[in-house]
Amino acid sequence: MREDLARAREEMASEALARARCLEQIGTKVAHELKNPLTAVKALVQLGVRNPSEAPSHERLQVVEKEVARIQEILAGYLSFTRPLQEVRPERTELRPLVADALLALSARADQASVQLSSQGDATVEADPRRIKEAILNLVANAIEATPPGGEVVVEVRSLGDHAEIAVRDKGRGMPAETVKRLGTPFFSTREEGTGLGVVLARSVVAQHGGSLRYDSEPGRGTTATVTLPARPPSRCRDAARAAR
Ligand SMILES: Nc1ncnc2c1ncn2[C@@H]1O[C@H](COP(=O)(O)OP(=O)(O)OP(=O)(O)O)[C@@H](O)[C@H]1O
Ligand SMILES: [Mg+2]
Question: Other CB atoms closer than 10 Å to residue 71's CB: what's the count?
Fold first, then answer.
C-alpha cells in the first residue's frame, strides 16, 4: 500500500515534470513569435487613439488596446513559468515567513471578498523562495475566489522529515471530479476573468523543485491543495543553481 502510494506520487511528479517541460517549449516559442508583432500592434493602436482625425474610431481602438494588453498579460504569465531550470535558485528557506508574505500580498483581495486568511506551522526547505511564493500566491488566490463572504482560508505548513507540506484549505464551493482532472491544463478556467494559468504555474514551479501538487475537493464542501516539497531539491536543480551563480 505504502509502495503503491510512493509509486503513484513518483508517477505524478514525473508526469508533472514532463508537462512542465512541454509547456516550457510551447511558452518560449509563443513568446518569441508573438511578443514583437504584439508590441508593434500596440504602438500603432496607441497612435490611433492619440490621433484626433481618428476620433470616430477611438472607442473601438481602446477596446483593441485593452485586448492587446490582455494578450500581453497572458504571455507574461507563460513566461513567468517558462524560465529554464537554471533559474530555480534553491536556498535555505523558512516557509512560515514566506507564507505570511504571500498572505499579506493577498490581504486586500481577501478583505474585499470578506474572507479571513490565516496560517500555522513551519518548515525549512531548500527552495527558490521567490518561485515558491508565486506558487502559494496562486493557490491562495484560487481559494479566496472559491470562498463565500464570511469564510476563511487556512494555510498549514508541516515538516515531515525529508519533505515539507504546504496545505491551502478552503471550505468554499469545491470542484467536481471532472474539474479536478482538468486542473493544470493551460487556459482551463471556470471564471470569466480567469486566464487559467494559476494552477499550471504552481504545478510547474513545484515540479521544478522535485515536488508535487495534489488536490482534494468536494463540491459544496471545499478544497485542499497540498504542495509537497522535498527538504532538499534533486541534485539536478542544485547543480544548475550552482552553475548559474
Ligand atoms: N480552491 C479552489 N476551489 C474551487 N475551484 C478551484 C480552486 N482552485 C482552482 N479552482 C478551479 O480551477 C480553475 C483553474 O484555476 P487557475 O488558477 O489555473 O485559473 P483561474 O484562477 O481560473 O485563472 P488565473 O490564471 O487568473 O489564476 C479555476 O477557474 C477554478 O474553476
Ligand atoms: Mg487562479
Answer: 14
List, for residues 10-23, the tens digit of each pLDDT value: 777 777 767 766 77
What is the best residue among 170, 178, 180, 189 to mutate for testing ligand 1's pocket, by most ligand atoms within 8 Å of CB?
A: 189
Residue entry with cell 509502495:
3
143 Cα–ligand 2 center, Å:
8
Residue 217 neighbours by CB under 8 Å, 6+ apart: 174, 175, 179, 180, 223, 224
Amino acid letter for position 196: G
Q: Which residue has the cell 486566464?
A: 195
List, for residues 104-154, the tens digit of each pLDDT value.
999 999 999 999 999 999 999 999 998 899 899 999 999 999 999 999 999
Domains, in order of start, for the chain? 2-82 (no CATH), 86-244 (3.30.565.10)
Atom 8 (ligand 1) nearest CA? 142
Q: Ligand 1, residues 137, 199, 221: which to mutate, most atoms within 8 A of Cβ?
A: 199
